[in-house]
Design a protein that fits this description.
seven-stranded mixed β-sheet; homodimer; alpha/beta
């Protein structure tokens, strides 16, 4: 009889956000009159900017006319968008990245999850701890992670790089040698970053040891400090050791529109092959291009009008981040992140675990956040709030939290 | 040093359609004044139907308003669409399929390519020969196919089921036992189908031997004969042995819009797990939902207005199919398919190989088709033409081909 991929069966329980959704649902059903404010999932709340809406309407009209209809898109993305990204996101920032090194996709989550499959089955992976769960989970499915220790919440064959208040959330170079190093900067969930010097250390390390850095820069648009690189390709040497993932979800509100891209320099080579051609082959075989309408919408993100509108949108969320950061500080919490990222990371008070704090905050303030332990063992004792809510809800949530402590 | 997935390196040369594109490009560059007619790739040419365009504009407007904005879609698809599909495509046809057995995705190609990863690494696969190349290629990438014999064009660990004029393009039950059986009905590229009795044989075989049928029904909308099932779930017993892939590309012109779905009955179980939960987990980890706008557009496909418009669109393409079928017959070719499918499959004249015929047709009639050998070794000596061109181009192509033979 046929058998399933047993690696899938090793995945513990349900996905973090499903568990949260269930808890919130059961609370709201039991307490229908309470207004629950969700600062949990990193989903945006502001509508698409007018320039994007306009571009989408135009593209929809093109699809309705036989003279301008677009069928299958090129697997790797339309040339117009790849050129625009190469120019605006890279070349203008001094990064030597060409249009044909940009691969357009339906989002950074897909790419972050799928990228592992173009590497050898016995590749050793290293991840920051805590971090976005997709990196580890997709490697679990591929059988790379060994066995799960439920009590400790760790996989036997994953190199964890703890990022806690003690090391200022800066991962240290691992003692064991990884093949693939996942870095998420600005980090989800901690909202912390690496400066140029800190990132250079990683690029040098990867080049010396023959590792690949899988650099998730989904939150790049939120960087405000001068010394924090927006792309790993700002660092000399990155072309021979790094892949970068980018998203339109957080800089342009595309969470429900779906678009992202991956940058693979042609100089990234193993002893057995160039990585670029493998990813092209994957795209050609298991993906069929992102929608024309969505790729046209992305062009509006780079227009002067679009840029101005999105700058305001990011500023809106970052004002929320400040409100949360300052509000929590006032309420006596130890708080991190929130300066170059839309995430605020707090230390749970006293001996409370992440999930205890989740339950307490839901019940006493009717505010939903995300337990830090859901992002890895070193996230235990921490908690994430997001700046993606509306201003009104964010203010009300902080008011409730301040009153709790008072 | 890091290593890539060596299975990728086993894939021979470039993808079929890239080779065709290169040949056509070099011909048109050398002969800029000739009008080349492309009846090669299965891409549609008619614009999206007015009902779909209207639904898209409305959904775009919703995305531009904070009160109706939609962020992340549910990973498995919006309930409204899953309900509609379950009802209109399945329950109304007498198939016992529930909404939560429908998984919405960005297209059938992604799903057909990704599905293999939820099965055991040592699963044995069987494919019709010739067939859509994604089934074999995605299994090559996963290391299931053994070694490639360049001369014969076959993989050592794939069970090929030849479908040729000799067996009326009906695959025979294999002698070796497969775990996963890919069936594409109506078939791409031959345009042939299985009737109810023929399909029942496969369902019974799969249930008896413990195999899974991976049933690609992307061309279901083109079925015109009464005795040909539109879904494998019309056959009793399919709930315990089949997964079905569906697409909006060919019934509604979504090739550049991207939407499809996969049906996994909850009764499909291996000795180690239920398949349904694995695919849900894959979607949750490596996919982030299909765009709201596109899922709303799909709802228009099921509206009375949309159905009427799309019926006309399918009829348009099927008139092309008739033109090609009859035209080729008149010109003295042996012709197959084209009755329940938008593909016409012809035997190349004399001793011509598929690629020789490709070159000859391109040079002498300036018509592009697809060499049968690109779909598998038993496709050698055959050639595919598609009905997805415009009426004008299709007529002109047939005129040219008729004149050639005269």
């Amino acid at each position: 009889m046929f058998q399933v991929n047993e690696n899938y069966l090793k995945l513990p329980g349900s996905y973090l956000f499903s568990t949260i959704a269930k808890k919130v649902k059961s609370y709201t059903e039991a307490n229908p009159h309470r207004k629950v404010i969700r600062l949990g999932i990193g989903d945006v709340t502001q509508p698409l900017a007018p320039a994007i809406i306009k571009a989408m309407h135009e593209a929809v009209d093109e699809m309705g006319d036989v003279r301008t209809f677009h069928g299958y898109a090129p697997d790797l993305g339309y040339g117009f968008l790849r050129e625009e990204i190469a120019k605006k996101d890279y070349q203008e920032r001094g990064c030597a990245i060409e249009a044909d090194e940009i691969f357009i996709s339906d989002g950074a989550k897909s790419d972050c999850g799928n990228i592992q499959e173009i590497f050898a089955a016995d590749s050793r992976i290293a991840v920051c701890d805590p971090v976005y769960p997709v990196y580890v989970d997709s490697n679990v499915m591929a059988g790379r992670t060994g066995e799960y220790d439920e009590a400790k919440g760790i996989w036997s064959n994953v190199i964890y790089m703890p990022c806690t208040a003690e090391n200022h959330f800066v991962p240290e170079l691992p003692e064991e040698r990884p093949d693939l190093i996942y870095l998420c900067v600005p980090n989800n969930p901690t909202g912390t970053t690496l400066n140029r010097e800190q990132l250079k250390l990683w690029v040098d390390y990867a080049n010396e040891t023959g590792a690949v850095i899988l650099y998730d820069a989904a939150y790049e648009a939120y960087i405000r400090e001068e010394d924090v690189p927006h792309s790993i390709f700002e660092i000399p040497g990155a072309r021979t050791c790094a892949i970068e993932f980018r998203s339109f979800s957080k800089n342009a509100g595309f969470t429900g529109v779906r678009l992202g891209f991956t940058v693979i320099p042609k100089d990234l080579k193993s002893s057995n092959a160039a990585v670029h051609s493998l990813w092209a082959r994957r795209h050609g075989t298991k993906f069929n291009g992102a929608p024309y309408i969505v790729q046209k919408a992305a062009m509006a993100v780079y227009s002067d009008e679009g840029k101005a509108q999105l700058k305001e949108q990011v500023a809106y969320y970052m004002s929320n981040a400040e409100l949360i950061y300052e509000g929590l500080k006032e309420a006596g919490y130890q708080v991190y992140g929130g300066v170059n990222a839309p995430y605020i990371w707090l230390k749970t008070p006293g001996d409370m675990t992440s999930w205890e704090f989740f339950d307490w905050l839901l019940e006493s303030a009717n505010v939903v956040g995300t337990p830090g332990s859901g992002f890895g063992p070193s996230g235990e004792g921490y908690f994430r709030l997001t700046a993606f809510g509306t201003r009104e809800n964010t203010m009300e949530a902080m008011e409730r939290i301040r009153n709790l402590k008072a």
